[in-house]
Amino acid sequence: MKYKLNFSSKLDFSSFPVTGAIVAGALRHPFVAWRPSTWPAAPTTVDEDLVLTLKRIFEDSILGEIENVMSDVRQVNGSLEHRGHVIAIALMCALTAISSYGYTGRHAAKFIKRHFHPDYHPYADQIYTLYRNSLMHDWNLFRASVYPDDRKITVEGGSLAFGLHNFAGALVAATEDFLETLGSDAALQRNTLRRYKKLRNSAVS
Questions:
Q1: Which helix (H) or strand (E) holds 202?
Q2: 84-102 and 164-182 are packed helices; what angle lies between their axes, rounded to 10 degrees?
């Protein structure tokens, strides 16, 4: 796979905010994934450089950060138990952010149907409403649940459930598939370029 995500640390010897805008001075800063003001200017078309830029953004400032938190929790706590709620919220935010590049209007559900493991496809709309909307807007799950393990997505007593490790792995694989597909899908390219340009232009430099 050409765009396999790499969560290993990248060397960065700068001493600036750990996330967000750089507002102290007008010095030129190298590309740092979690500082949108350092992102390269949007190209006129989706090219290899843009796909690699997106890869770095996704792996360094979104999915890699979540993986670091999950790893820290497992090291201290032994499992994701009693930490899974906040991790589930972060995963839904990640799904929303990544899917918004390629899709519009219920973009998370469309992303799941197109790029996730087939196990998740029948439940894409339910994940959008029962997980994404509920966690991001109401902080809690009311008609679904998560487990601190790797169990596959299933319906239990009429309620949808999955393991956080399983969903996190599925999201990583789906992001890789999105990046692979981006090079040959004109509609994805238009949406992605529009989204990237809007985000990059909104950053304080």
A1: helix 186-202
A2: 10
- Report the distance separating Cα 196 and Cα 114, nearest Å: 20
Helix (H) or strand (E) holding 163: strand 159-163
Q: pLDDT of 166-198, one tens digit each?
A: 999 999 999 999 999 998 999 999 999 999 999
Adjacent-strand bridge partners of 145: 161
Q: What is the dihedral of CA 8, 14, 20, 21, to 10 degrees?
A: -150
For residue 162, the cross-strand partners are 146
Return the C-alpha torsion angle 173, 49, 108, 121, nearest 10: -40
pTM (predicted TM-score) = 0.86
